[in-house]
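If it is no trouble, might I ask you for a protein's amino acid sequence along with its backbone structure tokens?
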Amino acid sequence: MTDDLPPVFRRVLIKLSGEAFGPGGKNGISLEETLAVSAQIKRIVAKKVEVAIVVGGGNLLRGAQFSAGLNTIKAATADYMGMIATVMNGLALQDSLESLDVPTRLMSAITMERVAESYIRRRAIRHLEKGRVVILAGGTGNPFVTTDTAAALRGRELGVDVVMKATRVDGVYTADPEKDPYAERYEHLTYKKVLDDRLQVMDISAFEQCMQARLPILVFNYKRDNSIERAVAGKSQGTLITAE
């Protein structure tokens, strides 16, 4: 039972890609999927874990989808559109959590004062200390930067114990497990091993941020039952990446 698993991390940053909100790999927002993630988050908040969440927007729009074709939309504009999509997911997650009586604050790196607070580091930390889930949308507010990098930067700023990258794959493998049936999962990796073997964990800018700060990265499958609670308790079936 996950209720018997005490948390080993007290302040975490969870990076949720847009697919966590999508209806079975399709575009759009699934209330069922969003509620399922929210229910897990509620359970770790009940254990006094401070939670920040960086949300992606790929279920609604990816800036890269405009990189080919007529080039009518500039790359920077496309990236801003993608950042706005993350705010939409953030709003859905906020209301979903609050429907479960979980206090939240949605903070955006792009100013949208009618729907979200502007991201200010000290204010975000104060929200965490008060037990509020801080949902971080809008990436870093800059184009040409991934949400992976936003997660690494916010993780460093907020002083979290671990960056938890929630994916549909249960960790880092020797090869793509969806293509290679003989791929093997690593339970633990060092930053050096990841670089030496060119393993795909997150984009290199994000990875270097975590490595410089010696900030652990946990890659795990959020779709598994109670996966977020188990990850916070150090019982994840994913891959933990540390300095040693």
